[in-house]
Structure formats: C-alpha cells, structure tokens
Specification:
By secondary structure, the protein is α+β, with helices and mostly antiparallel strands. The chain has one domain. It has helices spanning 3-24, 37-43, 49-54, 72-75; strands at 31-35, 55-60. Strands 1-2 form a two-stranded parallel ribbon. Helix 1 packs across helix 2. 7% of the residues are buried. The mean pLDDT is 92.
C-alpha cells in the first residue's frame, strides 16, 4: 500500500469514527451521506449499528463544487427544500 493510499484509508476511517461519535452524542437523528463512491464505500462500512439505524440513504457523487442552492435536487428523497424569507 502506498503512503497516499494509507493516508486515504486513515481519512475514511476518521470520517466514520467522527460520524459515529456525533451520532452517539445525539447531534443528529437522521443521516444522509453524500460522497464520491470510493469514499462512500470506505466510510459506510465503518458506521456502527446505532449510526447505521439513523442512515436514511446515500448519494455516491462528488458534490463538493456544487453551490449550496443546487444541492437539494441531489437529496430530495430525504430532505425537504428550505424556503427562506
């Protein structure tokens, strides 16, 4: 395994660990994960059982460059649109 692959692996595990910690702390009661397929494939298996129970769905896409106002169509199955005054 290359150093780059090892760093990526550590990052993916750190993300799953942080999501599990936030779930246990009660930070959220429902979760949708949006990440590139290769990241999602590493993060999702690292979720513990209580966190997995809160997982509503996943979107295997890299949306990091999508403006906030254009994100809703990607998560419409789980997240209602926000109406601002």
């Amino acid at each position: 395994m290359t150093p780059h692959e090892m760093a990526k692996d550590r990052f993916d595990h750190a993300v799953a660990r942080r999501i599990n910690e936030e779930s246990a702390a009660g930070t959220f009661n429902a979760l949708v994960i949006v990440a590139p397929a290769h990241v999602l494939g590493e993060v999702e298996p690292g979720l513990d059982v209580p966190t997995r129970a809160k997982l509503l769905g996943t979107v295997a896409k890299d949306l990091v460059h999508v403006p906030d106002h254009d994100l809703q169509p990607h998560v419409k199955d789980w997240v209602r649109p926000v109406h601002r005054a």
